[in-house]
Design brief:
The structure is a single chain. The strands form two sheets. The protein has a five-stranded antiparallel sheet. It has a five-stranded antiparallel sheet with strand order 9-8-7-6-10. The chain contains four helices and ten strands. The protein is an alpha+beta fold.
């Protein structure tokens, strides 16, 4: 089936697609609904990774090398686009009482709010994303959650290895919402 036929079918069926125009970067794509397609051009009603409206993309059909449909990523973006206003989970960090126990206070706030945190460690290439399950004065145990809200493994990390923490960022809010509504 020609790529134009794939886009035309997606338009007819109202199926969300992921379009790829750069073979060198196959993880980079645009996601949305096909608004228009002919032999030379297509218009995609585009959505950002958080499900928000990202306008329209007008592209040449001959620049396309791949179109994905009905995958877990497209399903995730479609779900987020339908529930975009629901996943905001505003959480404030309480007043810090002591800089001697800053990490402990942040960990307690994450537990109390059931918020997801991103823990950046001395391994600059990796982060730990998830819910704080337990902690003590030296260690924190995190229930890892992937970008689709699926529970993965538990990981324990020493406080001294933590270089930064993202507390309830937009990405964390989206993952938490997916964990609560999309997966379960």
């Amino acid at each position: 089936m020609a790529i134009i036929d794939v886009l035309a079918k997606a338009k007819k069926d109202g199926t969300m697609v992921a379009t790829h125009i750069n073979p060198a970067d196959q993880s980079s794509c645009s996601v949305g609904f096909v608004y228009y397609v002919d032999e030379n051009w297509y218009i995609l009603k585009s959505y950002a990774p958080d499900g928000s409206d990202d306008g329209y993309e007008i592209r040449r059909t001959n620049d396309l090398f791949r179109v994905d449909m009905q995958g877990v990523y497209e399903s995730k973006i479609e779900f987020l686009s339908k529930h975009h206003q629901e996943f905001r989970h505003r959480v404030e960090i309480p007043t810090i009482k002591s800089n001697d126990n800053l990490i402990g206070e942040i960990l307690q706030a994450l537990v109390a709010s059931n918020a997801i945190g991103v823990f950046w460690t001395t391994d600059d290439d990796d982060s730990i994303i998830g819910f704080v399950k337990e902690y003590d004065s030296e260690w924190v145990t995190v229930q890892i959650v992937d970008d689709y809200g699926r529970v993965d493994s538990l990981v324990a990390v020493k406080h001294s290895e933590i270089r930064a923490i993202d507390f309830n960022s937009k990405k964390c809010q989206i993952i938490n919402f997916l964990h609560q509504k999309f997966i379960n």
